[in-house]
Amino acid sequence: MTGTPRDGEPTPEVDLGAGAVDASTEDADVRRDAAADADDDALADAGLPAEGEAPTPAAGPKKASLAHRLYNGEAGLDVVGRSRFWYKVTAVVVLVCIASMVFRGFNFGIDFEGGNSFRVPATSAELTQVREAAEEAGAQVSTAQIVGGNTVLLRTGALDNAGEATVAAAVADAAGIQPSEVTVESVSADWGSDITDQALIALVVFLVAVVLFLAVRFQPKMAVGAIAALVHDIVLTAGVYSLVGFEVTPSTVIGFLTILGFSLYDTVVVFDKVDENVKDLEKGARMTWGEAANLAVNQTLMRSINTSVIALLPVLGLLVVGVGLLGVGTLQDLALVLTVGLAAGTYSSIFLATPILADLKAREPGVQALRKRVLARRAADARSAGAVAAGPVASARRARPARAAVAVADREELPERPEAVEQVESPASVTRTVAAPRPGARPRRPGGGKRR
């Protein structure tokens, strides 16, 4: 009868036989052949080190991108905190632009000042000859340029009928063509004045609509910051036109209105993030209003830069292709105003509009009270952190364990557990109930002991 051996009896040895030995030998041969077949390429494909090489250490956590760190507040610019610096930079640039507009003035085109234009079929080699011929005929040439690759465009001051005929004959002789092939156009100064008046009306209506929208959608102080940014963009773009001496044409007016729309769009994006960050800010009291606004600027910083770069690419293409290859002067005016305006709009929406808004909000009593609460809370946290650092026993008793399982070596390094401390309540919190003595019995002492 077979069964489990009793206690004290030796366990019988089982003879596995020759089959088990052969199986183990075959397994060893298979492992040896597999190891021999595993060359360096196979090990590399499997992610294993080659023979004689140390294993590659595991890569650490991937570093977050700049946009991610900006959005989380881990990195960024202190735009609101250094608002005075940005105000000074802006003031210097604006003053230079205003001085240029006052003392240097603008180079108004024929559409604003009135005059004549002559289109002469000629090449770029004949440009100088055609211009000199027009000036010798008594015309005041303001601009002379190649348009369309095979046409010279001359813009002169106002001429009468006889003067037009004389200049047309002179430029035709210089280009070697008939006077009838020269296209002559006359523009009155009244037409340019009408364009200026309509542009000013459109600008005023646009600014009023912007103020109403921002005041209703967000708050009136955001409208003040947006208008300040728009005025900065207008002055800066106009100042650059005055400095470089480019001709002001109707295309320039169109470009002005375009950059105002872009600047407003970028400012509204930043203000929308500011409005999102400051919601329920007083409940948590973890950051001031200015810090929340600065966080919004950094969260939208990469978006603003990417949007501006994408918008500038077609403008630069317009500037290079339209002016460099096609020789269209009108595109040159439009491309310049768009380039300067887009760059100015990006700067003002980041470094001007939000700091102005934060400075205006800092004067409100509620925002000032929030700032005091935040500073008081941070001071209290700093004091509590210092107290916890001074008492390791209290810190060990109050702090939660960082992990559930602690290594044995770490446990040995921990200080000994302090003795149990008896909790003592304050006299005011202790309510002692004493039973009334029985009739004829002596009152007992509070401790329950007998009187000696």
Please outline the helices and strands.
Layout: H1 18-37, H2 40-46, H3 66-71, H4 83-103, E1 107-108, H5 110-113, E2 115-121, H6 127-136, E3 141-147, E4 151-156, H7 161-175, E5 183-187, H8 189-217, H9 220-244, E6 247-248, H10 250-277, H11 281-284, H12 289-299, H13 301-325, H14 329-351, H15 353-361, H16 365-390, H17 392-398, H18 408-413
Parallel strand pairs: 1-6
Antiparallel strand pairs: 2-4, 2-5, 3-4
Helix pairs in contact: 4-9, 6-7, 8-9, 8-10, 9-10, 9-14, 9-15, 10-12, 10-14, 12-15, 13-14
Transmembrane segments: 85-106, 199-216, 223-246, 252-271, 309-328, 334-358
Subcellular location: Cell membrane
GO molecular function, one term: protein-transporting ATPase activity
Considering the chains and any ligands shown, give keywords for the structure.
single chain, 452 residues, alpha+beta, Alpha-Beta Plaits, Multidrug efflux transporter AcrB transmembrane fold, two-stranded parallel ribbon, 18 helices, Protein-export membrane protein SecF, transmembrane helix, translocation, SecD/SecF_CS
Description:
By secondary structure, the chain is an alpha+beta fold. Among the domains are: 115-187, ACT domain (Alpha-Beta Plaits); 191-369, Multidrug efflux transporter AcrB transmembrane domain (Multidrug efflux transporter AcrB transmembrane fold, Up-down Bundle). 61% of the residues lie in helices and 6% in strands. It has 18 helices and 6 strands. It has helices at 18-37, 40-46, 66-71, 83-103, 110-113, 127-136, 161-175, 189-217, 220-244, 250-277, 281-284, 289-299, 301-325, 329-351, 353-361, 365-390, 392-398, 408-413; strands spanning 107-108, 115-121, 141-147, 151-156, 183-187, 247-248. The strands form 2 sheets. Strands 3-4-2-5 form a 4-stranded antiparallel beta sheet. A two-stranded parallel sheet has the order 1-6. Strand 3 and strand 4 (151-156) form a beta hairpin. Helix 4 (83-103) crosses helix 9 (220-244) and helix 8 (189-217) packs parallel to helix 10. The chain is elongated. 26% of the residues are buried.
